[in-house]
Every structure is written in C-alpha cells, then in structure tokens.
# Entry
Amino acid sequence: MQEANWVRGLQNIFMIFAALKNKLTVSSRMNRKQKHPRESFVSMTELVLPNDTNTLNNLMGGRLMHWMDIVSAIAGQKHCGSIVVTASVDNISFRSPIRLGDVVTLRARATRAFNSSVEIRIDVDAENIPEGRKIESNSAYFTFVAVDKNGHPVEIPEIVPETPEETELYNGALRRRQLRLILSGRMKPDEANELKSIFNIKE
Ligand SMILES: CC(C)(COP(=O)(O)OP(=O)(O)OC[C@H]1O[C@@H](n2cnc3c(N)ncnc32)[C@H](O)[C@@H]1OP(=O)(O)O)[C@@H](O)C(=O)NCCC(=O)NCCS
# Structure
C-alpha cells in the first residue's frame, strides 16, 4: 500500500515536470521574435571579368555558386542576427549562359524559418548594358543554420510573410525542407507528411 503511494507520488512529480516543460516550450514559442522577408533582403551586383569565365568566355558555374552562397549567407545573417553556416544547397540548374562583360545581380531573402534553420531564395539576373540584353538566369534555395560561437544551433526569429508571393514561398518551404531532409538522410520518407499530401499518398 505504502509502495503504491510512493509510485503515485513519483508519477505526480513527473507529470508536474512534463507540464512545466511543455509550458516553457509554448511560452518560448509565443515569445519568439517575428520578422518579415523584406528585413533580410540583400541585393549584390557583380561584373563578369575574364578571371570568372571558362574557355568559352561564359561565367563559370562555380563562381556563380560562390556569389550565391555569399549573398544568401548575408540574407541569412540579417534574418537570424547571428553567425550562419550553409547546411544545404538545393538543385541549381543554369538555363542560359552569362557572358564576359555581363552585369550579374543576385537578390536573396528569407522565405521561412524553422527552429535554427532558415531557407533563403536567391534570384539571379544578368544584363549586358551596352547591348541592351537581359537574361533571367536562375533561382535557387540555400539553407542556413544559425549557430553560436561554439557552432551549436540556436533558435531564430519566425518569418511572417506579407505579400501573396511571400506566402506562396512560405507555404512551399515545408515541402522543400522535407525533401532536402530525406535526401540528406535526416528524415524517413514516411515521415514527410507535407510531401505525401502533394502526391496524394494515403497512410
Ligand atoms: C549545419 C549544422 C550546424 C547542423 O548541426 P547538427 O548538430 O546536425 O544540428 P541539428 O541536428 O540540431 O540540426 C540543426 C538544424 O539544421 C538543419 N539541417 C541539418 N542538416 C541539414 C541539411 N542537410 N539540410 C537542411 N537542413 C539541415 C536541421 O533540420 C535543423 O533545423 P531546425 O533546427 O530548423 O529544425 C552542422 O551540420 C554543421 O556545422 N555543418 C557544417 C556547416 C558548414 O561548415 N557549412 C559550410 C560548408 S563547408
């Protein structure tokens, strides 16, 4: 009898701890800072010089990816207000070549934040000013993780979209996150509910 009371007492203590932990998590979520995508917006302009090109005088893909990494890391820092590291880069395809002498503009902004990670979309355009030629080259998504000075992930502000385009990017971000987590072996395909819903896969 005495033993049963002792076990019940212990169970009550565990329940109080669980409730407290839940309350703390909820209140930390409620207190989480909110930011808009425009607050992380970054635009960067580069001129394609001979050292940036391949033997066909076209911009090398690796140089463009380097610029994309920089512009999106700055957008990530602006959103997170901390150091960020590149966690992943989604598929990048190059639609049209960018040529020697073209002016390349890269625009980046945060689309959605999770706990410590933020998805950044980068849009790239190129223009040859003397020829009056413009090309919309490509777009890509990079994921950054905010870390402290010891490299440990830290919580970041939430994102509140303001425009229909930002809302669309925000909504699609969960699906893109699940896909990249599956590809990196961090999520099992059967846990990806958002992805399953777009392919209409039943449980
Ligand atoms: C990114 C890094 C900090 C994650 O550390 P970790 O110990 O695995 O941390 P966690 O498992 O807690 O994950 C932290 C976040 O990273 C995200 N993440 C980790 N790997 C990811 C990947 N491949 N793609 C997308 N997100 C990823 C997780 O989903 C999680 O996001 P959330 O907090 O928003 O839910 C760590 O792997 C790292 O330092 N990598 C090297 C980064 C680097 O040097 N980049 C430059 C390229 S050389």
